[in-house]
Write a structure and sequence with these properties.
Length: about 220
């Protein structure tokens, strides 16, 4: 075979190390049997179960009186590490699911939509919560404050712990919340200015007087 020449050792006996390596790597050569072959299924089973330490697996084989060496076990474990894992994907985190539920559907990618659809199919309570969240987003974005009492009643009937507490908390000042979700006027600009002033004050570490604080606010 071209490209697969061999050289014998000086003693005239078996081929040398380089020759044997070339024979093993030439196309068409079958892999040599190994003493580790009978134990490879056991190693693969233990590797899949989570034991990936070649040292530990070598000890286990020695306990079974297997005629194998540590380099044999380590080399086979190295090949198993390169094989793509067949374990199922990790479930989404709470933060991921919360983001899927609270973001606008148009802002979700195809992968996010598929993940949300899957978790909703697995959890009926989460599917119900998603419906309530969508309804509240419509009330919030469309300024439909008149629908707020009906939304609170529906949410109270569903008895979802987190959302029910949020809805019942709004009953303490329902008129103000309804006005905020209905009228076009808002105190958001005033609160934003107050937060900006507080930020400047924190930057001064409380060491500046009113005059300096006033000048910094006017200059900004």
């Amino acid at each position: 075979m071209s490209g697969c020449t061999t050289r014998t050792s000086s003693s005239g006996g078996r081929p040398g190390t380089r020759a044997r390596w070339r024979q093993d790597t030439c196309p068409g050569n079958r892999p040599r049997p190994s003493k580790l072959d009978p134990y490879k299924p056991y190693l693969e089973q233990r590797f899949t179960a989570g034991c990936t330490s070649a040292t530990q697996l070598h000890r286990e084989l020695l306990a079974q009186h297997a005629p194998v060496t540590y380099p044999m076990v380590r080399a086979h474990i190295a090949t198993l590490r390169t094989v793509p894992s067949s374990t199922p994907p990790r479930p989404p985190t709470v933060r991921q699911v919360t983001g899927w539920l609270t973001r606008h559907p148009a802002a979700l990618s195809e992968e996010d939509r598929a993940g949300l659809k899957e978790v909703q199919a697995r959890c009926p309570e989460l599917d119900t919560a998603a419906g309530h969240i969508r309804d509240f987003c419509e009330i919030l974005s469309g300024r439909l404050g008149a629908k707020l009492p009906a939304w609170i009643d529906a949410l109270e009937a569903s008895q979802l712990p987190g959302l029910t507490g949020f809805a019942l908390h709004m009953l303490r000042d329902l008129d103000a919340v309804t006005a905020g979700l209905t009228l076009e006027w808002s105190s958001g600009s005033v609160e934003g200015a107050v937060n900006r002033i507080k930020k400047i004050k924190r930057q001064l570490y409380g060491r500046a007087g009113f005059d300096l604080l006033r000048k910094m606010i006017l200059l900004q």
